[in-house]
Design goal:
The chain is mainly alpha-helical. It folds into two domains: 40 residues; 170 residues, no CATH class. It has seven helices and two strands, in the order H-H-H-H-E-E-H-H-H. It has a two-stranded antiparallel ribbon. A hairpin with a 5-residue loop joins strand 1 and strand 2. Helix 1 packs antiparallel against helix 7. 10% of the residues are buried.
Length: 210
Amino acid sequence: MRMLRICSWLIVVSLAACTTPPEIKQALVAKDQAYTENEQLMQQYRELVGNITTRHQQWYRFIQTRLKLNLALQWATTNPRLLDVPDTTITEDDAKLLGPEVIALVNEIRLKSLPERKGPNGQPVFLAGSGDMSNLIQQLPELIARIEQRVTADSQAASAVDLTAFDRYRTNVEALRRINAIIKQYLDIDVTLSRTDTQALADALRQVRR
């Protein structure tokens, strides 16, 4: 009988105490808000990184276009040389910077009297000049277009920024928010008994003991 009374008391107490404390609910709401703000902040940072990368790529393309255009015009109008640097080294390095498409056009517009220039393997890279200034000026738009294509391809390969880390972070935060929502939904299901209900249950239990 004593055990029955103890069990009855525990049942009443447990049913009466199943209310989720307001502090816990407030903490869950605050955590969800923090998740939201954090996700917004990371999205803003992602956009900032993307904008900065785009600006850097624009400056890179502008500078590289000017440099490569100057280099191409040097080979079209002069026979570049440097002190203490072998001609084959200069030819090879500049050929790598310009690329085959630009070099092909440079060979078409090189001025007369410019000599052939070979690379380290002995193969000609820049052909002996046969053009004139009129032809060079007419081909300038095409030369610029090829250089821009070259620079764009180089910039896309060199300046690619991986933004997937921000996407993974957002996915993880969304998962945490879903977990938080499930917990909050569960704790919102209160089984609190009113004082009248508790008294009625106690009376019923006493009737059982009799």
